[in-house]
Fold:
Amino acid sequence: MLPRRSVTTIRTSSTASIGSKITGNILMIGERLRQAFHNNKPAIVRDRRQLLRQYTQCFTGREAVDWMVTNRDIIDRGLAVKLLRILQRNNVLHHVSDQSYLFKDDNALYRFRLDDCTFPMSREKEPYIKGEQLYARLTSQLTKNTILKVHTESGTVYEKSFYGSELVQWVVKHGLAASRAQAIGLGKELVECDIIRHVTTGHHFKDERVLYQFHPNIAHLKVMDLFDLDERPRSLNQDSPMSLRRHSEVSPRHSPIRTPNSIDIALGPLTLEPTSYSGDENKNIRKSSPGSSDSSSPLPPRVRKISTGSRSMSPVRTRGISSDEEYMVKNTIKITGDSVGFGFVVRGEGPSYVHTVDPAGPAAAAGLKAKQYITAVNSVDVVHKKHQELAHIILKNPYYITLDVVDHNPLPKTEEEDED
Structure:
């Protein structure tokens, strides 16, 4: 039996910036909501009359909140208002008078900016909106003769896949592009924004019999993701610890994983004091299984312990981190991110280490643990990288990374130390 694969997990490199991808995901969620409002029976978006004036293609704040609570399992009307305000801040919707009227759960009228052509379209934003429209039409149950089919390539079965030439033809036929050249350009932009990808990441977009799939995260985007996306930094602060999933305030989905001290107190450089052990001492080294930790083990002599708020790390020699001669348990962890990120925080001045892990995030599911040192990202040595540099490297691959990590397994006490 052939292995079945609905998605490919290896990510091709993307030229889209971190900020544009975050904004792009917000726009995709907004476009999905706009389509849902239009397709609702009865339609929420329709022409209305208020105060002797006629307004086209609009909806009331109360109706929008009603729909969110009923159809998106939003347990609180106030929560729905906050979600819709995020879309308002990102120019997805606005008050019909176009004044700075904050979205409210009332009878005020609002419009989607795409409906009245006031959306500030740009080359960076357009692929995300068209990508969502394309995905919605191709996956709709009402769509006949969809190009999303099961294909087999090199002995592997790829579900919901399509050929580049088929996509070009479909896009032109359904009016998303005026010519094949425009359709090819759109396909390239979708690949660059990581909305579609070659099944083995071996090709950019081509108008040929080359197989592609939509990125798996697109199917899982939901309105509640707006909180996490809105909290994520659009750029990285060089002076602060790097968080691969930002939690500046309590998210409705989960509680913050960072302690107060981890936000306000920066970790100073690791003090790497010289240590030496004789061959006889090395015979008594205890080794643990990968991923395990022994909190009761004492520290090696002459190693200073540095406090990091609620957690502490024992500084180790950079040379020892990458050497087989030291007391390290090495492991390789593959993490597939979600629409929010990977879910862990890194700190350190080289070597850098995992400071905290979101228990509900992809990193925790993959087996990453706090206090593990990161030695390589996608086979690239990062032992000497500070946490700012390390975060930049990781965030260049926001959907899939392979981390080489080590657990520092401290030395047992000597008999002389026990007597003391």
